[in-house]
Each structure stands twice: as C-alpha cells, then as structure tokens.
Amino acid sequence: MRLSAVTGRRFLKNRLAASGLAAVAVLIAVSALAPFIAPYEPTAIDIANVLSPPSAAHPLGTDELGRDVLSRMIWGGRVSLKVGFVAVGIAIFIGMLIGSVAGFYGGRTDAALMRFVDIMLAFPTFFLILAVIAILEPSIFTIMAVIGVTSWMDVARLVRAEFLTLKERDFVLAAKASGAGDKRVIFRHILPNALSPVFVAATFGVAGAILVESGLSFLGLGVQPPNPSWGNILTAGKDNIEVAWWLSLYPGLAILITVLSYNLVGEGLRDALDPRLWEAGSE
Amino acid sequence: MALLEVKALKKHFTVSISPMRHATLKAVDGIDFSLDKNRVFALVGESGCGKSTVARLLLRLIAPTAGEIRFRGENILGLKGGALKAFRKSVQIIFQDPFASLNPRMTVFDALSEPLKIHGLAGRAELKDRVSELLQSVGLGDVLDSYPHEFSGGQRQRICIARALAVSPEVIVADEPLSALDVSIQAQILNLLLELKERTGISFVFISHDLRVVEYLSDEVAVMYLGKIVEVSKTEDLFGSPLHPYTEILLSSAPSIKADGRKKPELKGEVPSPINIPSGCPFHPRCHRRFEPCERVVPELRQYKGRQVACHLRNPAI
Q1: Does B306 fall in a domain?
Q2: Do A179 and B85 touch (CB under 8 A)?
C-alpha cells in the first residue's frame, strides 16, 4: 500500500482534523458555487432595506446600503480562499526553490541564501506588507503577491533542513552511484521525501494568509468596496456595531472558523506524517 | 593489471569542536590495495576505523583528500561526463542498512528500472522483463508494484543487490551488507553473494567486521585500524597465522563455539578517537606485545614473507 494511503487513514482517525477537513471542504464548495447559491447579487443596493436584521428574506441581515450580507459573505469567502491559496502557492514555490538550492549545494551558496532568509525574517511582515501596499495599488493581486513574497522563509528553512539530511541518506547515494544526475537526484529522490513538512506549512500558511487579507481589507488596504471580503464587511460592522450586530458577528465567525479549520487540518497532517508517532499497532 | 587499485588514499574531515576550534579527523590515512578480477577483497576492522569512508571513496561519492583510485588503470578522480557515467556502470555499492538504502516513495519497479533507464540498457518495452529477471536472480518473485516498507530487512537487501546488479557491474563494493540482518537471513544473503560471484564473475570489495563471514567469502583480507591498513594477507594465511598483534586479537575475540582452554589475548579499551591518533604505532596503547619503538616510530606497511604488515615486530631492522 502507498504511504499516502497510510497517512490518509491516520489523518482521518484524528476527529478534530477530520472535522477541520470537512469544514474546509464545505468552504471550498461554497466558494466554488458562489454564483449559483448566493441569493442576491453581492453588490445589489436596496435602499428600502438598509441595516435590516436577519430575516427570512435576508438570513444574515443587510448592510448600510441594504446589500444582502449572506451573499456578500459567500463571495467574500471566494476572495479569502483565492488569496490564501495563491499567496501560499507563491510562498511555496519561492521557498522550495531557495531551500533546495541551499540544502543541496551547501557551502557558500547555502550561507548566502540563509543570510538572505534571516534578513527577510527580520522585517515585521505585516508592516512590510502595509508599506508595499501603500506604494502599490491595493488590489487582490497585489495582496496575493505581497503575502507570497513575504512568507516563503519558513518553507525555505524546512526544505533546506530536509535536503541536508536526505542528501546523505543511503538511497540518495545509491542513486548517485547508479549514475543519476543532480536533476534526477533532486526531483526523483530528495524532493518527494522532503514534501511532508511543506504540506503542513502550506496548510498553516493558508490560515495565516487569510488572516492577513482580512486584516488588510479591514484597514481598507485590501479588497476595495464595493467588492466584498470578510475584512471589509467587518469594517462596515465596526461603524454600525451599536445598531447592527450581525454585520460584525457573521464575518468574524467566518474568519474564525476558516482559520481554525485550516489550523486543525495542519496539525492533523503534521501528526499523520510524523513517522515518530507511527505506532507499531496502527501500521 | 589490477581491476581496481588504490594508492596512498587519504580522506581527512574537518570537524568543529567549538565555533572557533577545528580539528582534523583522519578517517582514511594513506591506504593502498588492489583488487583483481573475480576476487573478493575484504576490508575488516572495528567500527570507526574508516571502512565505510573507503567504500564511499571507491564509488566516488565523496572526494579524497589525497591519493589515487584507479579503475582499469584510469584514475577515477579525473573522470567527467560520459567517462564518469561509464565508471558508474562498472562499480556499484550495497549498503549496510537496507531500510535506509531504498527510496520509500519508489516502487520496486521504479527503483530497479532507474539504473537501466539512466544507462539506456533496456527499451521501454523490455524494462518490465529485465526488472523481473533481476528480481528472479536475487530470489524474489513478482513484487514490481510494492513499496519498500512492505518488505523485511532480508528482502530489502535482496532488492538492493538487484539494483546493484541492474547495470551488470564489474565490481560491487559491499559495505557491511549483512550486519543489519538476522543471523538466519545473513546466511541466505551470504550464499546469494557467493552464487552471484560464481555465476557472474563480479569482483567484490567486502567490508565487514564479522571475521567468520570474511573467512568464508574472501580471497584476500586487509585489516584496518584507525584509517590505516595494518596487515594484508591471503585469507588462509591471515586466519592461519596472523602477523599483526591487532589481527591476532581480532581473531581470538571472534565468538567461537569450540572452547580450547588456551588463554587468549584480549582487546583492551576502546578505539582511540580518529581526531586524536596516538603517537608512533596507532595501536600501541592497546597492544599486548608493544616494546620500545612502538610509541615513537610509526611502522610502515612493508613486505614480510610475501605478505604485508605494519608492525615493528616484523621489521628485521628493529
């Protein structure tokens, strides 16, 4: 049986992780089907129903322009997931590239790249992002790119550490002795065995990126109104907190549940992939 | 001409003791030997004497500090590109730990077809047949799609041997191929290696600390101590009449079922650290026959009655 099947079984045995995965699956499905399941247009203004509380027509109420909060949240979830996945994708690409090169070639290349990582880590990320967004046009693409290029350092360190141990392993030496070139050794032998911690970091990374995006949108530096995002719905909620609690509660809950679910999945993955926790009885 | 020839081979590592202090670890410190066709050359010694480093050097997996390794007369250290690839096809390795020497994410088929693909030894259509043949030659059935974690240690070692055989090498360096296995499995793998030697004429550099296995398998034996060879003899000579006191002790300390009642010399203490090698003869602090020059003068490996030994006892000039 494949190792991945073993890991999958161990993952699903962990109830918290499994429910996290279920929540993530629902969120992804809802976001993918947004155009079909959202009851209203997310930007449709209805002046007659401004700040109306949750009702049958508007299950989560309406905002200060009479827009349906449920529809805006469904579309906002789309933004969050997009930012999460694309930003993490960028971070993983950069991190794996730099980590593999540093770990595989070692020596001065390694020292130089790792000092660069240290420099990047020394910046307070959120303020760096704020500064960059202040210069560039705030848009969903800028956010994705900026989060991506400021959050690859952990991945680089993890991949480098894996490469350092794996490149001395006997099966890698055997591949070299069989005449395998650097490319084959890296892509066929080392990288596939270095991916476990990257998966875990990626899952946590998605949660982090969603939080950063919400924060930026809340501050008005992220997704620009009238386009919905959980962060900018919260901004409207803050202005009307005394009269419209639903504007703050629901997007806040959505962010909480999403981030929590990704973190649970991440922790479950980490445990399922950790060979030290593999008991003799379970496999 | 010898198939494989090693001359004055050295490998020194720099180890850091503290951030500012470095020391030199002399893992291999000037060894010479040669291997002829269809022979088994054994390298024995306690752990930490540099045996495994020699294996990695012979395969050119690490670069030596000094010295030469000649394969069919050509120094392998200068090989590049196609010539290096040809050398990789001629010399293969089997490692000690069969659990670490197979990629956990590759099936048996992937692992065994890889060398065939790299060297262009089989077309797409023949790959499967070739791999099945290889598995058969090491006594395994149709396990093409299984992953390494599904096998026992002995089965994995068979897969590793099959991988080494895939390129039809002339030399296999076996780095303690039995020591991680159960005794009953050791015998099976040992017989497999012998059978391969008879059938294919492959030469072996057999690295081991198990003298019984060495006596059974090898034609010639070199005894290593702290990075140096202290004695080289034909197997029957070495086991019949060891020349070096260290060899003598190794032989007498090998477990044996027969009790002959004679008092045997025992090995005192631990192997000294290769960072801090004793003066003179590196073996003198543990030697039961040391005398005056031993702690001052380093004994050279020299001819003695058609054999080679590095010991002042066997030097008529002293």
Answers
A1: no
A2: yes
pLDDT in tens, B119-176: 999 888 899 999 999 999 999 988 899 999 889 999 999 999 999 999 999 999 999 9
Check if B58 contacts A (Cβ < 8 Å): no
* Architecture of the A3-36+62-277 domain: Orthogonal Bundle (1.10)
The reply to whether B73 falls in a domain is yes
Tell me the sheet residues that pair with A216: none
ipTM of the complex: 0.89
- Alpha carbon dihedral B51, B55, B60, B66, in 10-degree steps, equals 30
Query: Positive or negative, the Cα torsion across A99, A105, A111, A112?
Result: negative
Give the one of A3, A179, A193 whose C-beta lies nearest to B118's C-beta.
Answer: A179
Q: Under an 8 A CB cutoff, do B92 and A1 touch?
A: no
Q: Measuring CA to CA, which residue among A207, A232, A228, A229 is closest to residue A218? A: A232
**How many domains does one find in chain B?**
1
Q: Does A193 sit within 8 Å of B114, measured CB to CB?
A: no
Residues in A touching B166 (Cβ below 8 Å): 178
Give a yes or no: residue B142 inside a domain.
yes
Check if B118 contacts A (Cβ < 8 Å): yes
Hey, are the CB atoms on A178 and B147 less than 8 Å from each other?
no
Contact B61 A170 (CB under 8 A): no
State residue B11's pLDDT score. Answer: 95
